[in-house]
Write a structure and sequence with these properties.
The chain has eleven helices and 29 strands. The protein is an alpha+beta fold and 571 residues long. Among the domains are: 82 residues; 109 residues, Alpha/Beta hydrolase fold, catalytic domain (Rossmann fold). The strands form six sheets. It has an eight-stranded mixed sheet with strand order 22-23-25-24-26-27-28-29, sandwiched between helices. Strands 5-6-7-8-9-10-11 form a seven-stranded antiparallel sheet, with no helix packed on it. A hairpin with a 5-residue loop joins strand 8 and strand 9. The longest helix has 18 residues. It is globular. InterPro entries: AB_hydrolase_fold, Pept_S9A_N, Peptidase_S9_cat, Peptidase_S9A, Serine_Peptidase_S9A. It is an enzyme of class 3 (hydrolase).
Length: 571
């Protein structure tokens, strides 16, 4: 069953997928996959002096194309490979790139001479995040992690000098903060920080801030006086418009805004014209299309129906639910339903197209995405309503969404397959404890299920940085008791549970592998049913699972096959 589903999903992937080329300085850049390849090849070629039209994905020139980086060569013979930062020097002759070969998210940074193809002798271990070149390409800045996998130092490496002589540019001593680096859009400034999105507009900075409103606003400030007193409003805050981010371009600023859980792009012209919001209509293709996702095995959008519901939560709040199903799938309670959720860190799961999902839809599943509190689907307040002492709202929302779908005859109780990963895996553990009879199958990927013990151990990689999300049970007894009241591991008890698939990664720095393992061991010891509980540990990977593009699809196929089998939908 797994192999059959995998071949279906693989058949929907474009085997020679390529990105739309982008211009940076005097070069065009592009990545592409060779057929059957798991990893990308990175290319570049000189940009013409008069360049009025942008090339499309299939329009790369056949001559003057240079291979910047060949991931398949680097990944050969490795069980795991992931490319981190990739940065071409300003002069275009050097390439700095970082690789992770075991899933630990500790990247090894190396530098290649693009003119000779040779690697420079220096290698820098234990890095993470971006790499930024100095203006004259004589040095670069990078971020390193400490023993607990916290990005804590920004260092400067001068080419040709020993790595152990690299200077510390910035060090964050507070264990509750991560550091990172970036650069302004003009490349005039290197930015060190953790939080606000700051970039450059001509001779002014553009600043995203939540100083006056949780949904954020945009301000500008002159370069010679970027203090808060000099800020001028650019986009005012709104109760209904949640500013997610922005990008600057030569003639306009693109602002990402979320309204009622749906993403919009607002374009603001620098000459002061009024803002414009575009909706892209697939049927008319009113906006220029640079690239459209291809489904080689075939896909007809008219065969599927999408819907949007509002499900009442137990405290009266309405929770949005995005639904997609095949047009022939009945809404009478007879079809199985797959319900996905996350609900943490202010991270929203957008209702986007997925080729993998078709394997469920074409087998008669209804697919639902619950926009539960803890994400920022409806704004920053939606995130705050699912963290700290309101964390249980997230779990209640998910259960209440499921019950509403039962009440509306989308599915019957016990016919719901649910899935979530990391903090979404915590969600899976919590709702299984709260309402086990609702679920027909559960997939909890790298689940954060031992919340209390993890938050009590400040030597673990993410514990101090996570206290603002969950609370600090070391210092507050009330927090201790509240976390214990919902922590999935602590709330396991002797009763019947649905079939559950749990995954882990041996090198996972975010959810350590023993956390899912001890959860499964306790669950097996306590449960009073004969339902299947599986633990799959990736022995050569980390938090994100396997690294190759097809290997990742196979893991999806394993999940789907598990659900189909344990729910009795296949022989």
């Amino acid at each position: 069953m797994t192999d059959a589903i995998f071949e279906e999903i693989k058949g929907r992937q474009q085997p020679d997928l390529a990105s739309v080329p982008w211009k940076d300085g005097q070069w065009y850049y592009q990545w592409k996959f060779a057929e059957e390849s798991q990893y990308r090849i990175w290319l570049r070629w000189p940009a013409p002096s008069s360049d009025e039209t942008q090339p499309n994905a299939r329009e790369a020139p056949t001559s003057d194309v240079e291979i910047l980086l060949d991931e398949p060569v680097l990944a050969e013979g490795l069980e795991y490979f992931r490319l981190g930062s990739l940065a071409v020097s300003n002069g275009g002759s050097l390439l700095a790139y970082a690789t992770d070969t075991d899933g630990s998210e500790r990247y090894r940074l190396v530098i290649r001479n693009l003119e000779t193809g040779d690697l420079l002798p220096e290698e820098i271990p234990g890095t993470i995040g971006r790499v930024v070149w100095s203006a004259d390409d004589s040095s670069l800045l990078y971020t390193v992690v400490d023993d607990n996998w916290r990005p804590w130092q920004v260092r400067r490496h001068v080419l040709g000098q020993p790595v152990d002589q690299d200077t510390i540019v910035y060090e964050e001593s507070d264990p509750g903060f991560f550091v990172g680096i970036g650069e302004s859009a003009s490349k005039e400034y290197i930015i060190i920080g953790a939080g606000d999105h700051v970039t450059s507009e001509g001779d002014r900075f553009i600043i995203k801030t939540n100083d006056t409103h949780k949904n954020a606003r945009l301000a500008t400030a002159p370069q010679d006086d970027p203090t808060e007193q000099a800020w001028e409003p650019l986009v005012n805050a709104s109760d209904t418009h949640y500013i997610r981010g922005f990008e600057t371009f030569q003639d306009f600023i693109a602002v990402e805004v979320r309204i009622d859980g749906l993403d919009h792009v607002q374009l603001m012209w620098r000459d002061g014209e009024s803002s414009t919001v575009f909706d892209y209509h697939l049927d008319t293709q009113e906006l220029e299309v640079r690239q459209v996702q291809e489904v080689p095995s075939g896909y007809d959008a008219s065969e599927y129906v999408t819907e949007r519901l509002l499900a009442p939560a137990r405290d009266g709040v309405e929770v949005p639910v995005s639904i997609v199903r095949h047009k022939d799938t009945p809404v009478d309670g007879s079809a199985p339903l797959y319900l996905y959720g996350y609900g943490a860190y202010g991270y929203a799961i957008p209702p986007s197209f997925s080729t993998t999902r078709l394997s469920l839809l074409d087998r008669g599943f209804i697919y639902a995405l619950a926009h539960i509190r803890g994400g920022d689907d409806l704004g920053y307040h939606w995130y705050e309503a699912g963290k700290l002492d309101r964390r249980t709202n997230t779990f209640n929302d998910f259960v209440d969404v499921a019950r509403h779908l039962v009440d509306q005859d989308y599915v019957a109780e016990g016919r719901i397959a649910i899935a979530g990963g990391s903090a979404g895996g915590q969600l899976m553990g919590a709702v299984v404890n709260q309402a086990p009879d609702l679920w027909g199958a559960v997939a909890a990927h790298v689940p954060f299920v031992d919340v209390l013990n993890t938050m009590l151990d400040d030597t673990l990689p993410l514990t101090p940085i996570e206290w603002p999300e969950w609370g600090n049970p070391i210092e507050d007894e009330t927090v201790f008791e509240y976390i214990r009241s919902y922590s999935p591991y602590d709330q396991l008890m002797a009763k019947e549970y649905p079939p559950i698939l749990v995954t882990a990664g041996l090198n996972d720095p975010r959810v350590t592998y023993w956390e899912p393992a001890k959860y499964v061991a306790k669950l097996r010891a306590l449960k009073t049913d004969d339902n299947l509980v599986l633990l799959k540990t990736n022995m050569g990977a980390g938090h994100g699972g396997r690294s190759g593009r097809y290997d990742r699809l196979y893991e999806v196929a394993e999940e789907y096959a598990f659900m189909l089998v344990v729910m009795g939908l296949v022989e």
